[in-house]
Design goal:
Elements: E1 4-7, H1 9-16, H2 23-34, E2 38-42, H3 45-58, H4 64-75, E3 79-82, H5 85-98, H6 103-114, E4 118-121, H7 124-127, E5 137-139
Parallel strand pairs: 1-2, 1-4, 2-3, 4-5
């Protein structure tokens, strides 16, 4: 079976946005695309990425043309968007278990768990909540 990846928005922005790009994020996602690795994300991930791009547009870090191009590139990625009852339940449970303050962060974690995917994040605050860190959770740059 092909490995699956769940890429957090914090990593996706480091892949997409010129002002945030890192070689690690570019390599991770480029390799996944080259290897035809299954990409999974919660059903709302497209809106979260779009919201970050809209914020960058509002504070003049991107022009409309740049934001539009980046959003189009993102929605063109072969991502399987997941929305199931068990995802909603598991996200709530994981948020409680690890003390994750926002449910949308816990949903990415639950998505990776349910889909047997490796979860990649650059969110230091979230990573600091794990003790111990689940085996399927990876920090960008490690």
């Amino acid at each position: 079976m092909t490995e699956a990846l769940c890429i957090d928005t914090s990593v996706m922005m480091k892949y997409l946005c010129p002002d945030e790009q890192t070689p690690e994020a570019i390599a991770l996602i480029t390799n996944a695309l080259t290897q035809q690795t299954r990409l999974v994300a919660p059903c709302f991930a497209w809106a979260e990425v779009g919201s970050v791009l809209r914020k960058k547009l509002r504070i003049n870090l991107l022009t409309f043309a740049e934001a539009d191009q980046l959003y189009t590139a993102y929605i063109s990625l072969p991502i399987n968007y997941i929305d199931t009852e068990i995802l909603r339940f598991d996200a709530w449970q994981l948020a409680e278990q690890y003390g994750i303050p926002t449910l949308y962060d816990a949903v990415f974690l639950a998505c990776a768990k349910i889909e047997s995917a490796n979860f990649w994040t650059a969110d230091e605050a979230m990573l600091n909540l794990f003790s111990p860190r689940p085996a399927y959770v990876y920090k960008l740059g490690d």
